[in-house]
Design a protein that fits this description.
Elements: E1 12-18, E2 24-30, H1 32-41, E3 45-48, E4 53-56, E5 65-72, E6 79-85
Parallel strand pairs: 1-6
Antiparallel strand pairs: 1-2, 3-4, 5-6
Length: 103
């Protein structure tokens, strides 16, 4: 199954979920190269829209996201990746990037 990269100018959102706890850890974007590298290495790789470059989560910090399962949504334009985090996911040091409760 191939994601539909055409709907959002070559990108798809990827929701990263903790494989064990099911907590949502972060959301990033993938292009075809990032998708293929993720499948090949079993480590979550994004496309950095700021740096215009591939970015494997953990390549600097060591806090890799090791892929366990991948699901696509019904339109094939959003990925849900269940991963085993090798440390905090957020750059703030928090487990998840979603810690700011609004409601």
């Amino acid at each position: 199954m191939n994601p539909d990269f055409e709907k959002m100018n070559g990108l798809i959102p990827a929701v990263i979920q903790d494989f064990k706890t099911k907590d949502v850890l972060m959301v990033g974007f993938m292009n075809k190269q990032a998708w293929e590298k993720t499948l090949q290495t079993k480590k979550v790789t994004f496309w950095s829209r700021v740096r215009n470059a591939l970015w494997t989560k953990g390549e600097t910090s060591g806090n890799f996201l090791n892929v366990k399962k991948i699901y696509m949504d019904c339109d094939d334009d959003t990925a849900l990746i269940q991963a085993e985090p090798m440390g905090p996911t957020c750059h703030t040091g928090k487990k998840s990037c979603f810690f700011k409760e609004i409601l």
